[in-house]
Write a structure and sequence with these properties.
Blueprint lengths: L2 E11 L2 H8 L9 E5 L6 E5 L7 H6 L7 E8 L15 E5 L2 E8 L20 H15 L7 H15 L5 E5 L3 E5 L9 E6 L4 E3 L6 E3 L9 E6 L9 E2 L5 E5 L2 E5 L14 H12 L4 E2 H7 L4 H14 L2 E3 L13 E4 L4 H9 L1
Antiparallel strand pairs: 1-4, 1-12, 2-3, 2-4, 5-6, 6-7, 7-8, 8-14, 9-12, 9-13, 10-11, 14-15, 16-18, 17-18
């Protein structure tokens, strides 16, 4: 099903532990592996259409001291039908506005050959490269030369639109920012862990291997590791469905869910809290009409708050509904895995 790995740190690092753990994921994703890093303003992409865990090159790169970068993206591939070749192996790279962008994708998209890619012509056959070219064409069309909160939101809209064509987790970087997006239906997962001093011992999930990070890291180093599934025994945080998180210099600078970058928790406004209270008071799904009757705020604001809670992954619309989410008969309920957290928030 392919897996992703992204690192975003405050200073250049060697990806020794993370890449070592990630190579094991190539046992279930045998159709190629790739690594992209930024030695300076340019990007270096190394990849092979071979299983990562069997590759002598990927084994060597675990310890190659020349690979140091603030941002690193890696990918192990399981093809959904296209050929096992270099041109179809992730990550992909292109230049835009004098910056070298790299991209890796996990999932399957339909109808991708009809994507409007503008001047960015795919070299290979994959849905992933078509999606990348579409993203760059959209960024160029929006004339996004410098990233701001407004342009982060615009990128989020672009990624959600592509997500409508199928399953879509992706990592993108221009060498300065690491953009990480999770599929709106939670396909295959995406999570992150924060690293900062004081460092302790860490054990890999897929190998009986432990390392004391305090002996490997400088005290000033901090950052985040993003992966499809946890690589270590640390406490990893899940992305919300359709969440875009952006990292720069080892800091979370944007989250489409309003996640608090300091505590890493997701924040809620009072309207969202009122909706959560109404839903938790009921043992069954609750219709939009009923929610509106129980909350004294305008209907349009309730709809906006419901959409926000859906994006954050804290509520769901019932699959049996035959109407859209803004219809009076649309019904909602809280996500089962979030109910204890919601109850704690309500009590506060």
């Amino acid at each position: 099903m392919c897996e992703l790995l992204g690192l975003a740190f405050s200073e250049p690092i060697m990806p020794t532990l993370s890449f070592r753990g990630f190579r094991h994921r190539g046992k279930d994703n045998r159709d190629g592996w790739g690594l992209a890093y930024y030695p300076d303003e340019s990007v270096q992409v190394i990849k092979e259409p071979l299983p990562a865990f069997k590759s002598k090159l990927s084994e060597f790169l675990q310890y190659y001291s020349k690979i140091k970068s603030k941002i690193i993206i890696a990918h192990v591939r399981y093809t959904s039908g296209t050929s096992i070749t270099y041109k179809n192996t992730h990550p992909f790279q292109r230049e835009l506005f004098g910056k070298e962008y790299v991209f890796a994708h996990n999932g399957t998209l339909k109808g991708y050959t009809s994507f409007n890619t503008g001047r960015f012509t795919p070299v290979g056959e994959t849905d992933s490269e078509y999606a990348f070219c579409r993203i760059l064409h959209s960024i160029e069309g929006e004339n996004i030369k410098q990233w701001t909160s407004e342009s982060f939101n615009r990128l989020h809209d672009i990624l959600k639109a592509i997500n409508n064509s199928g399953s879509f987790n992706c990592l993108i970087s221009d060498g300065e920012y690491l953009f990480c997006y999770r599929d709106k239906n939670g396909y295959n997962g995406l999570c992150f862990v924060q690293r900062s001093a004081p460092f302790g011992k860490v054990r890999l999930c897929d190998e009986d291997y432990e390392i004391n990070l305090a002996e490997e890291k400088s005290k000033t180093q901090k950052g985040f590791i993003v992966a499809t599934k946890p690589l270590t025994d640390e406490t990893w945080n899940s992305f919300a469905p359709a969440e875009l998180i952006v990292f720069k210099n080892g800091v979370m600078v944007f989250s489409s869910t309003g996640r608090d970058a300091n505590s890493l928790s997701i924040s809620f406004d009072e309207n969202e809290m009122e909706i959560l209270r109404v839903l938790r008071r009921s043992p069954h799904r609750v219709a939009l009409k009923t929610i509106c009757e129980n909350i004294e705020i305008p209907r349009e604001k309730i709809i906006l708050s419901i959409r926000s809670l859906l994006n954050k992954g804290y509520i769901k619309q019932d699959r049996r509904d035959k109407v859209g989410g803004d219809h009076d008969d649309a019904t909602f309920y809280t996500e089962s895995s979030k109910r204890l957290e919601i109850d704690r928030l309500i009590k506060k």
